[in-house]
Specification:
Largest sheet: 7 strands, mixed
Radius of gyration: 23 Å
Number of helices: 12
Helix content: 25-40%
Shape: globular
CATH topology of one domain: Rossmann fold
Strand content: 15-25%
Structural class: alpha/beta
CATH architecture of one domain: 3-Layer(aba) Sandwich
CATH class of one domain: Alpha Beta
Protein backbone atom coordinates (compact mmCIF):
# COMPACT_ATOMS: atom_id res chain seq x y z
CA UNK A 1 0.00 0.00 0.00
CA UNK A 2 1.20 3.52 -0.83
CA UNK A 3 2.43 5.12 2.43
CA UNK A 4 4.48 8.34 2.23
CA UNK A 5 6.65 9.29 5.18
CA UNK A 6 4.33 12.09 6.19
CA UNK A 7 6.11 13.71 9.17
CA UNK A 8 9.46 14.05 7.37
CA UNK A 9 7.80 15.35 4.21
CA UNK A 10 6.11 18.12 6.20
CA UNK A 11 9.36 19.93 6.95
CA UNK A 12 9.75 23.60 6.06
CA UNK A 13 12.16 23.96 3.09
CA UNK A 14 11.41 27.68 2.63
CA UNK A 15 9.62 29.11 5.70
CA UNK A 16 9.54 32.65 4.32
CA UNK A 17 7.87 31.64 1.06
CA UNK A 18 4.25 32.65 0.57
CA UNK A 19 1.81 29.79 0.96
CA UNK A 20 -1.11 32.02 -0.01
CA UNK A 21 -0.32 34.54 -2.74
CA UNK A 22 0.23 37.96 -1.10
CA UNK A 23 -0.77 36.32 2.19
CA UNK A 24 0.56 34.08 4.98
CA UNK A 25 3.90 32.34 4.57
CA UNK A 26 4.60 28.69 5.32
CA UNK A 27 6.22 29.75 8.60
CA UNK A 28 3.10 31.67 9.60
CA UNK A 29 0.95 28.61 8.87
CA UNK A 30 3.17 26.64 11.24
CA UNK A 31 2.94 29.39 13.85
CA UNK A 32 -0.86 29.23 13.74
CA UNK A 33 -0.74 25.44 13.93
CA UNK A 34 1.51 25.73 16.98
CA UNK A 35 -0.91 28.14 18.66
CA UNK A 36 -3.80 25.73 18.03
CA UNK A 37 -1.74 22.80 19.29
CA UNK A 38 -0.98 24.61 22.56
CA UNK A 39 -4.62 25.69 22.90
CA UNK A 40 -5.86 22.12 22.47
CA UNK A 41 -3.34 20.79 24.99
CA UNK A 42 -4.34 23.42 27.54
CA UNK A 43 -8.02 22.52 27.27
CA UNK A 44 -7.60 18.77 26.77
CA UNK A 45 -9.40 18.84 23.40
CA UNK A 46 -7.85 15.67 22.01
CA UNK A 47 -11.06 13.61 21.85
CA UNK A 48 -13.49 16.42 21.01
CA UNK A 49 -14.70 17.57 17.59
CA UNK A 50 -14.08 21.12 16.35
CA UNK A 51 -16.03 22.79 13.54
CA UNK A 52 -13.75 24.37 10.92
CA UNK A 53 -15.96 26.98 9.26
CA UNK A 54 -13.67 29.00 7.01
CA UNK A 55 -12.48 29.17 3.43
CA UNK A 56 -9.18 30.73 4.54
CA UNK A 57 -6.65 28.30 3.05
CA UNK A 58 -3.81 29.16 5.41
CA UNK A 59 -6.09 28.70 8.42
CA UNK A 60 -7.33 25.35 7.07
CA UNK A 61 -3.74 24.17 6.58
CA UNK A 62 -2.87 25.20 10.13
CA UNK A 63 -5.92 23.41 11.54
CA UNK A 64 -5.03 20.23 9.63
CA UNK A 65 -1.48 20.29 11.01
CA UNK A 66 -2.66 20.86 14.58
CA UNK A 67 -5.17 18.00 14.38
CA UNK A 68 -2.57 15.67 12.88
CA UNK A 69 -0.51 16.23 16.04
CA UNK A 70 -3.03 14.29 18.16
CA UNK A 71 -5.52 17.15 18.00
CA UNK A 72 -9.33 17.04 17.75
CA UNK A 73 -11.37 15.76 14.83
CA UNK A 74 -12.17 18.57 12.39
CA UNK A 75 -15.70 18.99 11.03
CA UNK A 76 -15.93 20.64 7.59
CA UNK A 77 -19.40 21.89 6.55
CA UNK A 78 -20.35 22.06 2.88
CA UNK A 79 -21.87 25.52 3.46
CA UNK A 80 -21.96 28.03 6.32
CA UNK A 81 -25.69 28.64 6.78
CA UNK A 82 -27.18 28.57 10.25
CA UNK A 83 -29.26 25.50 9.34
CA UNK A 84 -26.25 23.45 8.23
CA UNK A 85 -24.12 24.49 11.20
CA UNK A 86 -27.01 23.55 13.49
CA UNK A 87 -27.44 20.15 11.79
CA UNK A 88 -23.73 19.46 12.28
CA UNK A 89 -24.00 20.51 15.91
CA UNK A 90 -26.88 18.12 16.44
CA UNK A 91 -25.01 15.27 14.74
CA UNK A 92 -21.57 15.83 16.29
CA UNK A 93 -22.16 17.94 19.41
CA UNK A 94 -19.28 20.39 18.88
CA UNK A 95 -18.93 23.39 21.19
CA UNK A 96 -15.79 24.90 19.65
CA UNK A 97 -15.31 26.36 16.17
CA UNK A 98 -12.41 27.81 14.20
CA UNK A 99 -13.51 30.69 12.00
CA UNK A 100 -12.23 34.02 10.76
CA UNK A 101 -15.70 35.37 9.89
CA UNK A 102 -18.94 35.91 11.77
CA UNK A 103 -21.06 32.77 11.40
CA UNK A 104 -24.46 31.78 12.78
CA UNK A 105 -23.17 29.07 15.09
CA UNK A 106 -25.38 27.51 17.77
CA UNK A 107 -25.46 29.70 20.88
CA UNK A 108 -23.24 27.38 22.93
CA UNK A 109 -20.36 27.49 20.43
CA UNK A 110 -17.08 29.17 21.36
CA UNK A 111 -15.16 30.59 18.38
CA UNK A 112 -11.38 30.89 18.14
CA UNK A 113 -9.12 32.14 15.36
CA UNK A 114 -5.31 32.28 15.32
CA UNK A 115 -3.99 35.12 13.23
CA UNK A 116 -0.79 34.92 11.15
CA UNK A 117 1.97 36.95 12.74
CA UNK A 118 0.00 37.52 15.96
CA UNK A 119 -0.83 34.09 17.42
CA UNK A 120 2.46 32.22 17.42
CA UNK A 121 3.30 28.84 18.85
CA UNK A 122 5.89 26.18 18.36
CA UNK A 123 4.39 23.42 16.27
CA UNK A 124 5.62 19.88 16.97
CA UNK A 125 4.66 16.66 15.24
CA UNK A 126 6.31 14.22 17.63
CA UNK A 127 3.69 11.48 17.31
CA UNK A 128 1.70 10.69 14.23
CA UNK A 129 -0.80 8.00 13.27
CA UNK A 130 -1.79 8.07 9.58
CA UNK A 131 -4.79 5.83 10.35
CA UNK A 132 -6.21 8.18 13.00
CA UNK A 133 -9.34 10.14 11.98
CA UNK A 134 -8.42 13.67 10.91
CA UNK A 135 -11.58 15.26 9.62
CA UNK A 136 -15.20 14.62 8.74
CA UNK A 137 -16.41 16.13 5.46
CA UNK A 138 -20.09 16.95 5.19
CA UNK A 139 -21.59 16.88 1.70
CA UNK A 140 -24.92 17.93 0.29
CA UNK A 141 -25.27 14.60 -1.52
CA UNK A 142 -26.53 14.06 -5.09
CA UNK A 143 -30.06 13.62 -3.70
CA UNK A 144 -29.87 16.73 -1.54
CA UNK A 145 -29.65 14.63 1.64
CA UNK A 146 -26.59 15.64 3.72
CA UNK A 147 -23.98 12.96 4.32
CA UNK A 148 -20.61 12.90 6.05
CA UNK A 149 -17.39 11.06 5.31
CA UNK A 150 -14.55 10.43 7.71
CA UNK A 151 -11.02 10.97 6.40
CA UNK A 152 -7.70 10.03 7.96
CA UNK A 153 -4.44 11.89 7.49
CA UNK A 154 -3.25 8.86 5.54
CA UNK A 155 -6.25 9.13 3.17
CA UNK A 156 -5.69 12.79 2.37
CA UNK A 157 -1.93 13.23 2.51
CA UNK A 158 -1.15 9.96 0.73
CA UNK A 159 -3.30 11.11 -2.20
CA UNK A 160 -1.79 14.59 -2.13
CA UNK A 161 1.78 13.27 -2.18
CA UNK A 162 0.93 10.86 -4.98
CA UNK A 163 -0.70 13.51 -7.19
CA UNK A 164 2.04 16.08 -6.51
CA UNK A 165 4.69 13.58 -7.55
CA UNK A 166 2.78 12.24 -10.57
CA UNK A 167 2.12 15.70 -12.01
CA UNK A 168 5.39 17.26 -10.80
CA UNK A 169 3.79 19.98 -8.71
CA UNK A 170 6.54 21.83 -6.86
CA UNK A 171 7.66 25.07 -5.20
CA UNK A 172 7.66 26.90 -8.54
CA UNK A 173 3.93 26.41 -9.06
CA UNK A 174 1.06 28.79 -8.36
CA UNK A 175 -2.31 27.02 -8.16
CA UNK A 176 -5.73 28.50 -8.87
CA UNK A 177 -8.74 26.48 -7.69
CA UNK A 178 -12.32 27.33 -8.63
CA UNK A 179 -13.74 24.93 -6.01
CA UNK A 180 -14.00 25.86 -2.35
CA UNK A 181 -11.68 24.08 0.11
CA UNK A 182 -14.58 22.49 1.99
CA UNK A 183 -15.12 20.22 -1.04
CA UNK A 184 -12.73 17.23 -1.19
CA UNK A 185 -11.40 18.24 -4.64
CA UNK A 186 -10.91 21.84 -3.53
CA UNK A 187 -9.35 20.77 -0.23
CA UNK A 188 -6.74 18.71 -2.05
CA UNK A 189 -5.86 21.18 -4.80
CA UNK A 190 -6.15 24.46 -2.90
CA UNK A 191 -4.72 23.45 0.48
CA UNK A 192 -3.05 20.06 0.90
CA UNK A 193 -1.26 19.60 -2.44
CA UNK A 194 0.20 23.13 -2.57
CA UNK A 195 1.24 22.87 1.09
CA UNK A 196 3.10 19.56 0.88
CA UNK A 197 4.73 20.53 -2.44
CA UNK A 198 5.84 23.98 -1.17
CA UNK A 199 3.80 25.63 -3.93
CA UNK A 200 1.77 28.82 -3.63
CA UNK A 201 -2.01 29.06 -3.97
CA UNK A 202 -4.35 31.96 -4.63
CA UNK A 203 -6.42 32.82 -1.59
CA UNK A 204 -9.67 33.49 -3.48
CA UNK A 205 -11.95 31.00 -5.23
CA UNK A 206 -12.88 32.48 -8.62
CA UNK A 207 -15.94 30.94 -10.25
CA UNK A 208 -17.15 33.37 -12.94
CA UNK A 209 -15.37 33.27 -16.33
CA UNK A 210 -13.91 36.79 -16.01
CA UNK A 211 -12.65 36.02 -12.51
CA UNK A 212 -11.00 32.77 -13.61
CA UNK A 213 -9.30 34.44 -16.57
CA UNK A 214 -8.04 37.25 -14.34
CA UNK A 215 -6.74 34.77 -11.74
CA UNK A 216 -4.82 32.72 -14.34
CA UNK A 217 -3.55 35.65 -16.39
CA UNK A 218 -0.05 36.18 -14.98
CA UNK A 219 1.90 33.79 -12.74
CA UNK A 220 -0.59 30.94 -12.38
CA UNK A 221 0.78 27.58 -13.55
CA UNK A 222 -2.01 25.15 -12.59
CA UNK A 223 -5.80 25.50 -12.80
CA UNK A 224 -8.13 23.15 -10.89
CA UNK A 225 -11.73 23.65 -12.02
CA UNK A 226 -14.98 21.76 -12.55
CA UNK A 227 -16.80 20.89 -15.81
CA UNK A 228 -19.34 23.69 -15.43
CA UNK A 229 -16.52 26.25 -15.26
CA UNK A 230 -14.74 24.86 -18.34
CA UNK A 231 -18.06 25.04 -20.17
CA UNK A 232 -18.41 28.70 -19.19
CA UNK A 233 -14.85 29.41 -20.37
CA UNK A 234 -15.49 28.18 -23.92
CA UNK A 235 -14.61 30.44 -26.79
CA UNK A 236 -11.81 32.51 -25.24
CA UNK A 237 -8.25 32.04 -24.08
CA UNK A 238 -8.05 31.54 -20.32
CA UNK A 239 -4.53 31.33 -18.93
CA UNK A 240 -1.36 33.34 -19.27
CA UNK A 241 2.01 32.18 -20.56
CA UNK A 242 2.91 30.45 -17.29
CA UNK A 243 -0.12 28.12 -17.24
CA UNK A 244 1.07 24.56 -17.89
CA UNK A 245 -1.63 22.20 -16.65
CA UNK A 246 -5.34 22.08 -15.84
CA UNK A 247 -7.38 19.62 -13.79
CA UNK A 248 -11.08 18.80 -13.90
CA UNK A 249 -13.08 16.74 -11.41
CA UNK A 250 -16.44 16.55 -9.59
CA UNK A 251 -18.36 15.58 -12.73
CA UNK A 252 -18.14 14.55 -16.34
CA UNK A 253 -16.25 16.93 -18.64
CA UNK A 254 -17.77 17.12 -22.10
CA UNK A 255 -15.36 16.37 -24.91
CA UNK A 256 -16.27 19.60 -26.74
CA UNK A 257 -15.38 21.67 -23.68
CA UNK A 258 -12.11 19.76 -23.30
CA UNK A 259 -11.16 20.30 -26.93
CA UNK A 260 -12.06 23.99 -26.87
CA UNK A 261 -9.90 24.65 -23.81
CA UNK A 262 -6.95 22.82 -25.35
CA UNK A 263 -7.29 24.62 -28.70
CA UNK A 264 -7.58 28.07 -27.11
CA UNK A 265 -4.81 27.60 -24.52
CA UNK A 266 -2.65 24.71 -25.75
CA UNK A 267 -2.95 23.36 -22.20
CA UNK A 268 -4.14 19.78 -21.54
CA UNK A 269 -6.88 19.04 -19.01
CA UNK A 270 -6.30 16.09 -16.71
CA UNK A 271 -9.68 14.63 -15.78
CA UNK A 272 -9.58 13.08 -12.31
CA UNK A 273 -12.16 10.44 -11.49
CA UNK A 274 -13.09 9.78 -7.89
CA UNK A 275 -15.47 10.68 -5.09
CA UNK A 276 -15.45 12.02 -1.55
CA UNK A 277 -15.53 8.55 -0.01
CA UNK A 278 -12.98 6.92 -2.35
CA UNK A 279 -10.57 9.76 -3.05
CA UNK A 280 -8.95 9.80 -6.48
CA UNK A 281 -9.29 6.59 -8.50
CA UNK A 282 -7.80 7.38 -11.89
CA UNK A 283 -7.36 9.99 -14.59
CA UNK A 284 -7.16 10.57 -18.31
CA UNK A 285 -5.70 13.24 -20.58
CA UNK A 286 -7.66 13.29 -23.84
CA UNK A 287 -5.26 15.83 -25.33
CA UNK A 288 -2.62 13.07 -25.14
CA UNK A 289 -4.88 10.54 -26.84
CA UNK A 290 -6.23 8.87 -23.69
CA UNK A 291 -9.85 8.00 -24.39
CA UNK A 292 -10.30 5.92 -21.24
CA UNK A 293 -9.37 6.40 -17.59
CA UNK A 294 -6.26 4.80 -16.13
CA UNK A 295 -6.22 3.93 -12.41
CA UNK A 296 -3.68 5.53 -10.12
CA UNK A 297 -0.81 3.26 -9.08
CA UNK A 298 -1.93 2.82 -5.42
CA UNK A 299 -5.42 1.68 -6.53
CA UNK A 300 -6.22 -2.02 -6.92
CA UNK A 301 -9.31 -2.45 -9.08
CA UNK A 302 -11.52 -4.90 -10.94
CA UNK A 303 -14.79 -4.90 -12.89
CA UNK A 304 -17.71 -7.02 -11.77
CA UNK A 305 -21.09 -6.91 -13.54
CA UNK A 306 -20.25 -3.58 -15.17
CA UNK A 307 -19.39 -2.03 -11.79
CA UNK A 308 -15.98 -0.79 -10.69
CA UNK A 309 -14.65 -2.34 -7.47
CA UNK A 310 -11.50 -1.05 -5.80
CA UNK A 311 -9.12 -1.15 -2.87
CA UNK A 312 -7.23 2.05 -2.14
CA UNK A 313 -5.38 3.83 0.68
CA UNK A 314 -7.52 6.86 -0.15
CA UNK A 315 -10.89 5.26 0.77
CA UNK A 316 -12.67 6.63 3.84
CA UNK A 317 -12.73 4.39 6.92
CA UNK A 318 -16.24 3.10 7.42
CA UNK A 319 -16.97 2.86 3.68
CA UNK A 320 -18.94 -0.30 2.91
CA UNK A 321 -16.58 -3.03 1.68
CA UNK A 322 -17.31 -6.56 0.48
CA UNK A 323 -15.87 -9.71 2.03
CA UNK A 324 -12.64 -9.25 0.04
CA UNK A 325 -12.20 -5.65 1.07
CA UNK A 326 -13.39 -4.03 -2.19
CA UNK A 327 -15.56 -0.92 -2.44
CA UNK A 328 -18.18 -0.92 -5.22
CA UNK A 329 -18.71 2.30 -7.16
CA UNK A 330 -22.10 3.45 -8.40
CA UNK A 331 -20.80 3.91 -11.95
CA UNK A 332 -21.05 1.52 -14.89
CA UNK A 333 -17.66 0.60 -16.31
CA UNK A 334 -16.36 -1.06 -19.45
CA UNK A 335 -12.81 -2.42 -19.87
CA UNK A 336 -10.48 -0.28 -21.97
CA UNK A 337 -7.06 -0.78 -23.56
CA UNK A 338 -3.82 -1.06 -21.56
CA UNK A 339 -5.43 -1.63 -18.15
CA UNK A 340 -7.84 1.27 -18.50
CA UNK A 341 -11.60 1.58 -18.26
CA UNK A 342 -14.38 3.56 -19.92
CA UNK A 343 -17.07 5.35 -17.96
CA UNK A 344 -20.55 4.30 -19.09
CA UNK A 345 -22.56 6.48 -16.72
CA UNK A 346 -24.20 6.09 -13.35
CA UNK A 347 -25.91 2.82 -12.51
CA UNK A 348 -28.76 4.88 -11.04
CA UNK A 349 -29.10 6.75 -14.37
CA UNK A 350 -30.79 3.65 -15.80
CA UNK A 351 -34.55 3.87 -15.30
CA UNK A 352 -37.48 1.89 -16.61
CA UNK A 353 -40.17 3.61 -18.64
CA UNK A 354 -42.98 1.50 -19.99
CA UNK A 355 -41.05 -1.59 -18.98
CA UNK A 356 -37.99 -0.58 -21.06
CA UNK A 357 -34.56 0.50 -19.81
CA UNK A 358 -33.63 4.11 -20.54
CA UNK A 359 -30.17 5.60 -20.00
CA UNK A 360 -30.69 9.19 -18.84
CA UNK A 361 -27.11 10.16 -19.69
CA UNK A 362 -27.52 8.88 -23.25
CA UNK A 363 -30.70 10.97 -23.58
CA UNK A 364 -28.76 13.97 -22.28
CA UNK A 365 -26.01 13.46 -24.85
CA UNK A 366 -28.56 13.31 -27.66
CA UNK A 367 -30.21 16.52 -26.50
CA UNK A 368 -26.87 18.33 -26.14
CA UNK A 369 -26.04 17.43 -29.74
CA UNK A 370 -29.04 19.48 -30.95
CA UNK A 371 -28.53 22.90 -32.50
CA UNK A 372 -28.53 25.75 -30.01
CA UNK A 373 -28.33 23.58 -26.89
CA UNK A 374 -25.49 24.65 -24.58
CA UNK A 375 -26.22 22.32 -21.67
CA UNK A 376 -28.87 19.93 -20.46
CA UNK A 377 -29.85 17.89 -17.41
CA UNK A 378 -32.16 14.87 -17.73
CA UNK A 379 -33.95 13.49 -14.68
CA UNK A 380 -36.52 10.87 -13.88
CA UNK A 381 -39.66 12.07 -12.11
CA UNK A 382 -42.63 10.22 -10.68
CA UNK A 383 -45.52 10.35 -13.15
CA UNK A 384 -48.39 12.07 -11.31
CA UNK A 385 -50.88 10.19 -13.47
CA UNK A 386 -49.59 6.68 -12.85
CA UNK A 387 -46.95 4.40 -11.37
CA UNK A 388 -44.32 4.80 -14.08
CA UNK A 389 -41.29 7.09 -14.20
CA UNK A 390 -41.36 9.94 -16.62
CA UNK A 391 -38.35 11.64 -18.16
CA UNK A 392 -37.87 15.40 -17.92
CA UNK A 393 -35.20 17.60 -19.47
CA UNK A 394 -33.96 21.03 -18.38
CA UNK A 395 -32.31 22.69 -21.37
CA UNK A 396 -30.02 25.70 -21.47
CA UNK A 397 -29.44 27.24 -24.87
CA UNK A 398 -29.96 29.97 -27.39
CA UNK A 399 -32.82 28.21 -29.15
CA UNK A 400 -36.06 28.63 -27.19
CA UNK A 401 -38.26 26.66 -29.61
CA UNK A 402 -39.17 23.74 -27.38
CA UNK A 403 -41.66 22.33 -29.90
CA UNK A 404 -38.97 22.16 -32.58
CA UNK A 405 -36.56 20.49 -30.15
CA UNK A 406 -39.19 17.93 -29.17
CA UNK A 407 -39.89 17.19 -32.85
CA UNK A 408 -36.20 16.63 -33.61
CA UNK A 409 -35.76 14.38 -30.58
CA UNK A 410 -38.73 12.32 -31.71
CA UNK A 411 -36.74 11.38 -34.82
CA UNK A 412 -33.73 10.02 -32.89
CA UNK A 413 -35.11 8.74 -29.57
CA UNK A 414 -37.37 5.81 -28.86
CA UNK A 415 -40.78 6.86 -27.53
CA UNK A 416 -39.91 5.57 -24.05
CA UNK A 417 -36.78 7.78 -23.97
CA UNK A 418 -38.45 10.95 -25.23
CA UNK A 419 -38.77 13.52 -22.40
CA UNK A 420 -42.37 14.13 -21.40
CA UNK A 421 -41.39 17.49 -19.94
CA UNK A 422 -38.90 19.91 -21.49
CA UNK A 423 -38.18 23.16 -19.69
CA UNK A 424 -35.90 25.88 -21.00
CA UNK A 425 -33.66 27.95 -18.69
CA UNK A 426 -31.00 30.60 -19.09
CA UNK A 427 -28.83 28.94 -16.43
CA UNK A 428 -28.97 25.45 -14.96
CA UNK A 429 -28.78 25.69 -11.14
CA UNK A 430 -25.41 24.76 -9.66
CA UNK A 431 -24.20 24.15 -6.12
CA UNK A 432 -21.32 26.14 -4.63
CA UNK A 433 -19.00 23.34 -5.78
CA UNK A 434 -19.95 23.69 -9.43
CA UNK A 435 -22.17 20.59 -9.59
CA UNK A 436 -25.75 20.46 -10.79
CA UNK A 437 -28.13 21.22 -7.94
CA UNK A 438 -30.66 18.33 -8.04
CA UNK A 439 -33.08 19.83 -5.54
CA UNK A 440 -33.23 23.18 -7.35
CA UNK A 441 -33.60 21.45 -10.73
CA UNK A 442 -36.56 19.35 -9.61
CA UNK A 443 -38.24 22.45 -8.19
CA UNK A 444 -38.18 23.98 -11.66
CA UNK A 445 -40.28 21.09 -12.92
CA UNK A 446 -42.70 21.31 -10.02
Amino acid sequence: MFEPNLPHNLALPRPGKEFVLSGPTFAQVYDMAGWLQEFYAGENRRNQAVCLATDNKALIAAALLASMAAGPLLLLPYAFSARILAEMHEAQGYNLAISDSKRDFPATTRVICPEPGKNQGRFQLDEFDPAAPLLRLFTGGSTGTPRSWLKTAGNLFAEAFYLAKKYQINQNDLLVATVSPYHIYGLLFSVIIPFISSATVRGDTPCFPAEIREATRDRATILAAVPAHYRALKGEKTGGQALRLAFSSAGRLDQADNEDFYQKNNIPIVEVYGSTETGGIGARNRSHGESCFYPFAPVDWQISRERLKLKSPFISPGAELDEKGFFTMGDRIEPGPENGFFMKGRADAIVKVGGKRVDLEEVRDRIKAQHGVMDCVVVSLADPGGRENMIAALVQGKNDKVKELRKNLGLILEPCALPRLIRRTDNIPLTANGKYDPAAIKKLFN
